[in-house]
Every structure is written in structure tokens, then in C-alpha cells.
Amino acid sequence: MNYEYEYIVLKAQHTKLKNRSSAKISALENEIKRLRNQIAKPFKPKMSNATMQEVLDAVCHATGILPNEIISKCRKIEYVRARHLFCYVCARHLRLPLTKIGLFIERDHSSVIHARQQYQDFLDMGYQPEVSYYNHTIESLHLNLV
């Protein structure tokens, strides 16, 4: 038996497991910081509108993304898609003015136009996550599909 070789292999496995657990701990600590920040500074829209708030809550419930993340300037794909879904539902089903939707999410009306078109494209192409998020949002809002 080559004990030196076995020692090196075990040491490498130990280091690999240690690094993997450190990365997981770091990711969890970052998630805890983010959630604490969300609790400390809850989302309060600049413009109050009960129906848009209901849509935002439904989108958050469907996608699992917090309201602050949807409104944020962050361009993570999950946040962007949730933001697009919010704009699409508000514009298509509630028939709200684009400028009003834009003010609610702190964007320009042209961003709302782009978001609405992007989400329409996702639905037309049948992208599965986006379609299920949309259906879940519509069901939770009890809206009729148009």
C-alpha cells in the first residue's frame, strides 16, 4: 500500500469539501444579508395604486422574487423577467397607462413598452417558466385571459 498517495488523495478530497462548504456558507450569508435588508427597508412604491400593488404581490408569489428586487435597477435575468411580467399584466389586463406603470416601477414608459413586448414574445414562443409564471399570476389575480 502506498500510504503517501492515499494521504494526498484524502487531503485533496478534504480541501475540496472544505472549499465547497465555505462557498455554500458564504452564499447563505449573502442571502441572509439580502433578506435582512429587505425586512429593514420594505418596498414602498412612490406612487400608490392598489391594483398595481396586487399585481406586484401576485408576480412576487408566482416567481418567488421580492418586490424590492423587481423594482431594483439590478439586471439579473430572474428580476428582469419578473419585472417584464409585471409590466405585461398591468398593460395587457389592467389596461393601465404606460407612464403610470413606469412610475410605479421607477422606469420610463419606453421601458414598459419593451418589457410588455418581450413578455409577449416569451408567451408566443411558449417558454415554459414564463408561461407558468404568467398563468399563476393571472389565476391568483382572478383575471380573465384576454
Please provide a written account of the structure.
The protein starts with a helix and ends in a 5-residue tail after the last helix. The protein is elongated, with a radius of gyration of 21 Å. The protein is an all-alpha fold. It has 7 helices and no strands.
How would you sum up the major sheet? none
Question: What global shape is seen?
Answer: elongated
How many strand segments?
Answer: 0
Please identify the structural class as seen in this structure: mainly alpha
Chain-averaged pLDDT: 87
What fraction of residues sit in β-strands?
A: under 5%
Task: State the main characteristics.
mainly alpha; 76% helix; elongated; 146 residues; 7 helices; single chain
Question: What layout of secondary structure does this protein have?
Answer:
Elements: H1 3-40, H2 50-63, H3 67-71, H4 77-92, H5 98-104, H6 109-125, H7 128-141
Helix pairs in contact: 2-4, 2-7, 4-6, 5-6
Briefly say what this structure is.
The protein has about 150 residues and is an all-alpha fold. The protein contains 7 helices and no strands.
